TrEMBL record, chains A, B:
Signal peptide region: none
Residue stretches making up the HTH tetR-type domain: 8-68
NCBIfam families membership: ScbR_bind_reg (NF041196)
Entry's transmembrane regions: none
Annotation: DNA-binding region: 31-50
Protein name: Helix-turn-helix transcriptional regulator
Species per Swiss-Prot/TrEMBL record: Streptomyces coelicoflavus
UniProtKB keywords: DNA-binding, Transcription, Transcription regulation
Length: 222, 222
């Protein structure tokens, strides 16, 4: 158990160092030597977990969209809003999330399959919309697979625009505006009237998840 | 006049070569020597028009959003749709447009102010929405400056997602889906019912503009 804990910590160290290097240098320019240096681990330890620069980048991409699980909500459109607004909040505060987004949007990252996060997010959103449909939350013309891609693609663009014009400072208000523009084409009016799409929602959800973790016994957290 | 024509052609050659190099190599890796080589012009000619790599990139960015002017439409929401759908069509067919988009989304282009296209597009969309409001086309809650940024940011993201998952092959259907999701939150129902937001709209508008050019006397075209 102790050995496994150490391996998990080492892997986490390496990914955090890789996130930092990829964010600073871009995929093409970044080297494994720089990641080694930033992580302070041996070459053997790094290659035990990741065999190549691409595997490191895939590790960062996978980590950033797996890290936080939104509490289930009775209203699935609210749950979708929470996924988007929490991600916006975390993008301002978590280097791993920022690095993952940069890798995904890096059109010059040759040899790196960047479609993973787009496709994984699409599946997450699609599943939420399928449940929303079965609960009667969706307007009749909505096709969940099409709408899922619109939600994922549009949110990626709002992130890019916010990064470019304000260094993510206005991301939460832009994300709230995005949802207020998309959801009237997706959800029935009674659902719309019940939603919290405010700018501060991401931070509220973040604190909710944190306090749940803190209430759990220590063994369950590691 | 002849001298001026030659200067215009040289500038155009240089920008097309720069577009190709920036698209292939990314901003950071691209060099002025590569642009010189691809354009087949003298160093003196290039520096007469552009003093630095950044000026070349700004030239490409400026060119891609100035090149095509949409015919005015009585319905300004249709005109906005035409701007978006024509751009989607041209992104598939014009290297200058593709290079401009890549530069704008290149988060590792250090020292290059990439906010220009976002902000210029926002102004274009904002003006269309202001006119739409004065004509009674907008729903009462719409704030044109906020909605303009949502349209520009979301379209940028749909482009990125399309580039990543299909090399722009599905951009026209994704752009059509984007507008069908956004416009019900923006336009009054009678306007919505009159719109053409179909996938083929971009090509239709492109052919319309081309045929107008061809009908003009040759002197006006150069």
């Amino acid at each position: 158990m102790v050995k496994q804990d150490r391996a998990v910590r080492t892997r986490k160290n390496i990914l955090e160092a890789a996130a930092k290097i990829f964010e600073e240098r871009g995929y093409q320019a970044a080297t494994i030597a720089e990641v080694l240096n930033a992580a302070g681990v041996t070459k053997g330890a790094l290659y035990f977990h990741f065999e190549s620069k691409e595997q490191l980048a895939q590790g960062v991409l996978h980590e950033q969209d797996q890290r936080f699980v939104i509490p289930g909500r009775p209203c699935k459109i609210q749950e979708l809003a929470d996924v988007v607004l929490l991600h916006a909040y975390r993008l301002q505060t978590d280097p791993m999330v920022r690095a993952g987004v940069r890798l995904t949007m890096d059109q010059h990252a040759e040899g790196l399959d960047r479609s993973g996060p787009f496709l994984r997010w699409s599946v997450v959103v699609r599943e939420l919309l399928d449940t929303a449909r079965s609960q009667g939350e969706l307007l009749p013309q909505v096709v969940p697979s099409v709408t899922a891609d619109v939600v994922v693609g549009t949110f990626a663009g709002v992130q890019s625009m916010s990064q470019t014009v304000s260094g993510y400072q206005d991301l939460q208000s832009r994300s709230s505006a995005l949802l207020r523009h998309l959801f009237p084409s997706i959800a029935v009016p009674s659902v719309l009237a019940s939603l919290d799409l405010s700018e501060s929602r991401g931070e509220v959800v973040y604190e909710e998840i944190r306090s749940r973790f803190e209430q759990q016994p220590a063994a369950a957290v590691s």
